[in-house]
From TrEMBL:
TM stretches of this protein: 20-38
Gene3D superfamilies per UniProt: Lipoprotein localisation LolA/LolB/LppX, MucB/RseB, C-terminal domain
Domain called MucB/RseB N-terminal: residue spans: 147-221
Pfam families named in the record: MucB_RseB, MucB_RseB_C
GO cellular component, one term: outer membrane-bounded periplasmic space
Gene Ontology terms describing biological process: regulation of polysaccharide biosynthetic process
Keywords in alphabetical order: Membrane, Periplasm, Signal, Transmembrane, Transmembrane helix
Family affiliation: Belongs to the RseB family.
Location(s) in or outside the cell: Periplasm
Species assigned in the record: Pistricoccus aurantiacus
Keyword Transmembrane on entry: yes
Residue ranges constituting the MucB/RseB C-terminal domain according to the UniProt record: 237-335
Protein known as: Negative regulator for alginate biosynthesis MucB
Amino acid sequence: MRGVTISDGRLRGCYSLRAWGLTVCLMGLVVTTTAAWAEPDDPGERNKATAFDCGKLKNQAMPNSPDEWFERSLWANHCYIFEARAVRIGPEGIRTLALSHDIEHGEEHNVARLLDGPPIVFERRGRIGLGGWSGENANPVALPSAIMRHLDDHYRLSLSGEERIAGRPAQRLDIEPLDDMRYGHRLWLDKQTALPLKRMLINERGQMLETFQITDLEEPRVHGGEVILDEQRVPPEDPWRLNWLPPGYRPLPVAPQRSMHRTIVEQRLFSDGLSDISLFVESIQGEEFMLAPGLHRLGISYAAVRHIEVDNDPMQIIALGELPPEVLLKIIDEIVWSPDATNGDEAP
């Protein structure tokens, strides 16, 4: 049986484009951009927090507003232990999967198994991410809280009644983008747990790109302990400057990565709370590791590729994400070599 292991909860370690695209498609509802639904009341305690107590979810009242439903769903993704069967319908056809989410020693453990075709297993271990880099004047909060601070600036959330999904009552939540630089979402959240039972991804023309649905959810239960927050990271210094990003995309911390041929890959991760943009910059070491410039489609994701030379060294720039392709192309066109830059995450 073949498997792919992902060491970080936000897929930051995936460099292979084929592995990245397939993994995102298969992990579906399990691997989502998530953040904390409830923070400590005292800001000082919040900044010192190193874990989230999942037991808090047991006593919280049912959400009322669209924002409350979405935020609770973000926490539910971290704190509920479950096993499920799911189906994904997308450009590559129909796939059925077995999913599980567990928590071991404070770290999350997700497994997705393909039930048709080759017996492939995808595995993820990780912690709750933070919503930014640390620094002298920055004490990043858990990613869910960071997401909710800015989500309404770029999306309109609304409740659209109740339905029945996988034999369970579900609350439908529509998430509509306020511009044409990102996709829309429809979520059906389990009324009991707020776990996502179904997701539809809608493009800028209102067309459905993908449906991912749980077909059977074994009785989920709240983890009785804590889930650890990711470690704080200081932003690296690098000579690359990003001159343009779509409004609302903010840098998220990411650990240094190595490519398949063991060279250091400059990687940056940006998110608007619902979609991520991964940027990779590396020296090209032979044609076998070189991607053709232009666009590459990976299921519902696109990869935009550009080649440049820096001091006679050929470099490859890749922007990867579930966004309109013209947005990714503009991003890589606006990346410049700037040796005087101190932080490649900042766009003007």
